[in-house]
Amino acid sequence: MPEEAKDHKVTYTSSHPEVATVDEKGRITALRSGKTTITVKAQENEVENQIEIEVYSKVTGMTINQTGTYMQVGEVLQIHASIEPEDANNQNIEYSSLQPDIASVDTTGKVTAKQEGKTTIRVASEENNQIYKEFAITVVRKMEDSEIHFDTPLKVNLFEITGIEVEHNTVKEIKEKIVTNLEVVLVNKNNQIMQETDIVGTGTKVQIKENGNLLREYKIIVYGDANGDGKINSVDLLVLQRHILEIERMEEVYQKACNIRKDGKKPSSVDLLLIQRHILKLKQIEQ
């Protein structure tokens, strides 16, 4: 302005180009949620004007850390859910149970098993309830600690079993050390039932069942066994090296197995050395 001005050239700038950019023709491109100010300035005498832009990022998806599971009466399970994309404006999540008398769920995603039966938990986006995840929960009776006993050298801490002797770690040998009137089933990391002669390693799960229903599950950790084959050899060294170098990250259970010092820290080159000493038979790893 005015129309008869000699120079009509203007420049466009965005105060937050990570939110929205603007090109030399004034075309604005929204990149992520947030606010930015677009400034239009005349080149002739630096007269300028501004507009405020707010970019809205809608919900496009959801992830949760939970699949179908068994719970005992009285148990509590925390669901961890996240909205996609990370910068979506509305991150609120709604939780509901098809049969809340079987298992209820609160506004934070905490599931409480109330009585025996089956129900479905629904986790949905508040913005768009057509974006949701569901999983089934089977509630079984509470199993008492007195219903199961583990012979030495097996050690049980919460739901983890250590103390596995690498020379005596077949499914049959492990089962012989578990005393219970309930059914004992060992499954591998792919949840496939293992045979009596199969080797038990890190990540193997011991399932305690009654009438086909899962009552309790323990996870086995063999210190030094980084790949779950029940052996401690050069392959484990390679797996741990790749993890330390951040080439290929190990799952949490394998990281625990490689924490030879048992100090709760992330596995490091010190643990690598301890595995090497075990392989060379200089000092055996204590299970």
Describe this protein's structure.
Helices cover 11% and strands 36% of the residues. The chain has 287 residues and is mainly beta. A five-stranded mixed beta sheet has the order 16-17-21-20-19, with no helix packed on it. A four-stranded mixed beta sheet has the order 7-14-13-10, with no helix packed on it. Strand 20 (205-210) and strand 21 (213-220) form a beta hairpin. Helix 2 (234-244) packs antiparallel against helix 4 (269-279). The model has no long low-confidence stretch (mean pLDDT 93).
Name a few traits of the molecule.
single chain; 287 residues; mainly beta; 5-stranded mixed β-sheet; 4-stranded mixed β-sheet; 4 helices; 21 strands
> Separation of termini?
82 Å
pLDDT averaged residue by residue: 93
Shape: elongated
SS content category = mainly beta
List the helices and strands and how they pair.
Layout: E1 10-14, E2 20-22, E3 28-30, E4 34-42, E5 48-55, E6 61-64, E7 69-72, E8 76-78, E9 81-84, E10 93-97, E11 103-105, E12 110-113, E13 117-125, E14 132-140, E15 148-150, E16 155-157, E17 160-162, H1 171-175, E18 178-180, E19 183-187, E20 205-210, E21 213-220, H2 234-244, H3 252-257, H4 269-279
Parallel strand pairs: 7-14, 17-21
Antiparallel strand pairs: 1-4, 2-3, 4-5, 6-9, 8-12, 10-13, 11-12, 13-14, 15-18, 16-17, 19-20, 20-21
